[in-house]
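User: Could you check the structure of this?
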Amino acid sequence: MSESTKYFLPEDQMPKAWYNLAADLPTPVPPPRHPGTTEIISPDDLAPIFPRAVIEQEMSTERWIDIPEPVREICRLWRPSPLVRARRLEKILDTPAKIFFKNEGVSPAGSHKPNTAVAQAFYNKEEGVKHLSTETGAGQWGSSLAFAGSLFGLEVSVFMVKVSYNQKPYRRALMETYGATCVASPSPQTAAGRAILAAHPDSNGSLGIAISEAVEVAASRDDTKYALGSVLNHVCLHQTVIGQEAMLQMAMAEAEPDVVIACTGGGSNFAGLAFPYVREKIKGRSVRIIGVEPSSCPTLTRGQYAYDFGDTGKLTPLVKMHTLGATFMPPGTHSGGLRYHGMAPMVSHVKELGLMEARSYHQTECFAAAVQFARAEGIVPAPESSHAIRAAIDEALRCKAEGKAETILFNLSGHGHFDMQAYTDYFSGKLQDPEFDDAALAEALTDLPEIKG
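Assistant: Sure, the predicted structure tokens are below.
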């Protein structure tokens, strides 16, 4: 096995096409449905909020979809991202396991999100769109779309979940630096926001609420489309450059992963790393694939697999996914990017097919893992990414207990340089593990739509 620490691909080996898992699934993902009629949705139904090219990708079953050269040219600013062997962490853990991570924190916005932001901005610009509206949790997606919008001359409006808006002012400043406007959600700017504020004036907000506001803006303006940073098929598609690169880099390292790990909120960074490996698993390869989520918002481990709205205001298409219910309000933890009530339909389907595992952790045990990782490898991870690190460390310790020299690969989906208040709270003992509200879950699940046929 190679003795290198970092593995870099030359730019000319950056993927030229996105991989679409829909082409290889043994059974297809249940189709999205119209939020009003519950009938299977048509491309025309999505036209008010998405550009045509994105709609085509959303519904495609083609295995490979070419990446436009203008998108690849911009992505060369940070792609291919490095694969790193976490040798110092291995030594500290005294494990026979080999630990690798794909470092997506090297992008301009500091996370994996620009992989799809640039593509979506490109397609919108091509179709003459002037303005994009979106939501963001912790701010990684909002800052990524702001970055992409600045490159293509698009106005960008971001509805940022209020608890994160207050917790992470530097994410907000980054969005504004790139030229976007950022408001706290729920806001008085939309009917959806005003309705929430009327009922809950002190609402911390949620991604479901912020999505409602962003979709409302897109649907009400002819020059505006909506851009989503996770969950939908086209977003998962755009992220597969991560896993494709990782496969080439693991070959450079003369290693193959026995375990593939990523955190899961809406599902995009997990899909990006894992879907190329899911394809290999479908073909018969032995590999464990683990999605890791917060115990305070346990969509995959506690959610129901059912058709549900993607937003609290019930404006978005119905998709079949693991859901806690569109009205479920997750506690205000620091992993804002994982505070979403639903999971990507394709990731949910992969879970239902038994092609992946899911586990959840409390935020304090994830921060303990993040600090251990930072002190070993020198990178301060985003709170979201700390969930993958926690699982990777636990798997490495399992290998130690079992005497197995397995290879572990995880996705470091972003750095935590804009999340230092969370670390300050952790070191001062202010960070708590909120109890999961079973009664709130039960109530939210009673509101699931009835779908016939």
